[in-house]
């Protein structure tokens, strides 16, 4: 949700800021801009659309050593050049990620004082407020301190004040911000990939802290303006993770990484023995109820988690979308564990749900990908998935890694709660070992799914149906397809179609039917026959080989323990969604209107 970057140092800043913005483009891509200081003057350049438009209008050789940049995901005001960041009022120039919730109130007050505004953004209002405060405070740090008490909502700001062209400033609340350090200079950025071309050493700025950064110093102040010491962290990955490595799209690259991601995630917590599961997960023993809270695909992994934990560990699980959970009456108590699932660890609604549970003294566990992210830091416990850097906006490998964690948790709880016996455990542990090979085989068979995609990509709507866990998988498969191909797609519980939706089925309407749960297989088959007899083009996704040809195409899923089957089932459907979107010439890695990290409500 908007990417910000800043650099001050010995080297020319424009190439560094543009390379940082390119690495952050997954956070938003409807306009981009840069502000830099040249001969003590602030120069601003911005363009509508992707970073390439901005890049084409810049002189990379400009003698400038301090600058800030922004790639936008519009919240206030349409995606155009005027609303693009940076914004400037008086001596202040800023880039912003987040939402200033009290901007309307501040704007009225500032209009009264004679300020005028060119854009519709909350950011320009924040900029005017800094200018206004500075007139009284006459000191940059004091102005920023005051601003943190006035701005409501989420923000990470990169700030230049033209009275001090030797320093770059930053403040944050809720929205992520790191400060990175190298021999050639220092950076601010929304996320680590932005700086990996230059350094892997960084500091996490916390809420209400203020950073003052020169080319060879970083000073951080708390909300009383006392200087504080912060740890310098080292990012262990490399820039290679943020490169396509020969794949046409990041999404395809990330789909192809899933065998490794599964292996890395599992191996981190499980060495093939139940003791290793005990060591990592025994803190779960005491909970009698679980709430899983997340958004989008992470919510879908929660639905699968619920199915697995309830069926194999006999613990009731409630799954909620975070934007609802944060405002609803919760019936949790001291026996409840609230699990927050988030790839980015920065999703605003999920973070708010976590804070709500913490305020109510309920134990929290985060299942997160991004190390050191807000959700990871604030939860009582964290389980990191080992997906590495995920760049494509549509998640694939992080989804699989989240499912891997739910499979491990289920195996552990199922065993200690005596629902999984020694015999089943042995088979299950063998299947965990088989999984990377099975995932790889499915990925290598991509042509099969691509052929099916070629048959359906022109359809205007595509349905997914399934029962139980297969319905949860359908929801994710449907989201994957619609978010990248823009084809209307809905997932239904297979038994529910006849209560309304079946009227939408006509000749050749694709219906992708998932049937991996043996107990419900015959029931789902009856529902498939209902749509088939109304002309649907049925694509059956199942681990059963039917004797009867009630489908048009079959995607056969290998035999594996039911705790693991959803992971094998989603992969062909990720590949199918990818090819449908590719045939429709969609921007697969950056679907319209979306952003990778949703740090606004
Ligand atoms: C869909 C997708 C989104 C995210 C959702 C939550 O492909 O990626 O639905 O799953 O925005 O994001 P995180 O997991 O970062 O909290």
Percent in helix: 25-40%
User: Would you tell me the structural class of the helices and strands?
Assistant: alpha/beta
CATH classification class of the largest domain: Alpha Beta
Number of DSSP E strands: 25
Q: How does the major sheet shape up?
A: 8 strands, antiparallel
Look at the structure and name the CATH superfamily of the largest domain.
Aminohydrolase, N-terminal nucleophile (Ntn) domain
- What is the rounded Rg? 25 Å
Instruction: Give the ligands present.
Output: fructose -6-phosphate
**Low-confidence spans:** none
Overall body shape: globular
Helix segment tally: 18
What is the beta-strand fraction? Answer: 15-25%
Number of domains: 3
Examine the coordinates and then state which fold CATH places here, giving the name of the CATH topology of the largest domain.
Glutamine Phosphoribosylpyrophosphate, subunit 1, domain 1
Mean pLDDT, rounded to whole units?
Answer: 95
| CATH-level-2 architecture of the largest domain | 4-Layer Sandwich
Strands side by side in the biggest sheet: 3-2-4-1-10-9-11-15
How many angstroms does the end-to-end distance come to?
A: 11 Å
């Amino acid at each position: 949700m908007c990417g910000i970057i800043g650099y001050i140092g010995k080297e020319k800043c424009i190439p560094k800021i543009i390379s940082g913005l390119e690495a952050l483009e997954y956070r938003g891509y409807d306009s981009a801009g840069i502000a830099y200081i040249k001969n003590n003057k602030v120069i601003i350049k911005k363009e509508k659309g992707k970073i390439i438009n901005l890049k084409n209008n810049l002189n990379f050789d400009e003698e400038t050593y301090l600058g800030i940049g922004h790639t936008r995901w519009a919240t206030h005001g349409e995606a155009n050049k005027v609303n693009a960041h940076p914004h400037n009022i008086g001596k202040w120039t800023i880039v912003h990620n987040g939402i200033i919730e009290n901007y309307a109130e501040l704007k009225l007050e500032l209009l009264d004082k004679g300020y005028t505004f060119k854009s519709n953004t909350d950011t320009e209002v924040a900029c005017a407020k800094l200018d206004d405060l500075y007139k009284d405070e006459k000191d940059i740090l004091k102005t920023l301190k005051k601003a943190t008490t006035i701005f409501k909502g989420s923000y990470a700001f990169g700030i230049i004040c033209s009275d001090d062209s030797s320093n770059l400033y930053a403040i944050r609340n809720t929205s992520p911000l790191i400060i990175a350090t190298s021999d050639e200079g220092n950076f601010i950025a929304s996320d680590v990939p932005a700086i990996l071309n230059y350094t892997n050493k960084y500091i996490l700025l916390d809420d209400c802290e203020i950073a003052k950064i020169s080319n060879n110093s970083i000073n951080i102040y708390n909300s009383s303006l006392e200087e504080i010491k912060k740890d310098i962290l080292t990012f262990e990955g490399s820039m290679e993770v943020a490169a396509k490595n020969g794949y046409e799209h990041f999404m395809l690259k990330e789909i192809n990484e899933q065998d490794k991601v599964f292996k890395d995630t599992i191996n981190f917590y499980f060495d093939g023995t139940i003791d290793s599961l005990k060591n990592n997960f025994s803190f779960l023993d005491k909970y009698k109820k679980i709430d899983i809270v997340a958004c989008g695909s992470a919510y879908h992994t929660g639905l699968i988690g619920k199915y697995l934990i309830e069926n194999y560990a006999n613990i009731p699980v409630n799954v909620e979308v975070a934007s609802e959970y944060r405002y609803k009456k919760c019936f949790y108590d001291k026996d409840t564990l609230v699990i927050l699932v988030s790839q980015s660890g920065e999703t605003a609604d999920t973070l708010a749900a976590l804070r709500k549970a913490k305020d109510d003294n309920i134990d929290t566990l985060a299942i997160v990908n991004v190390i050191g992210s807000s959700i990871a830091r604030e939860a009582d416990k964290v389980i990191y998935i080992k997906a590495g850097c995920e760049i494509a906006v549509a998640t694939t490998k992080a989804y699989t890694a989240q499912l891997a964690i739910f499979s491990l948790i289920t195996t552990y709880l199922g065993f200690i709660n005596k629902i999984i016996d020694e015999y089943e455990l042995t088979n299950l542990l063998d299947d965990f070992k088989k999984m990377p090979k099975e995932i790889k085989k499915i990925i290598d068979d991509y042509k099969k799914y691509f052929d099916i995609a070629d048959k359906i990509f022109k359809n205007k709507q595509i349905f997914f149906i399934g029962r139980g866990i297969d319905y949860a998988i359908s929801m994710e498969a449907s989201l994957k397809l619609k978010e990248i191909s823009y084809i209307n797609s809905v997932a239904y519980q297979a038994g529910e179609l006849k209560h309304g939706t079946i009227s939408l089925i006509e000749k050749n309407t694709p219906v992708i039917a998932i049937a991996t749960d043996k107990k419900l297989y015959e029931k789902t088959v009856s529902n498939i026959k209902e749509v088939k007899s109304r002309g649907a083009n049925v694509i059956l996704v199942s681990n059963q080989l039917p004797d009867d040809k009630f489908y048009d195409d079959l995607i056969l899923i290998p035999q594996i323990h039911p705790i693991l089957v959803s992971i094998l089932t989603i992969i062909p459907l990720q590949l199918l969604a990818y090819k449908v979107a590719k045939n429709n010439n969609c921007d697969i890695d950056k679907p319209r209107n979306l952003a990778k990290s949703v740090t606004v409500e």
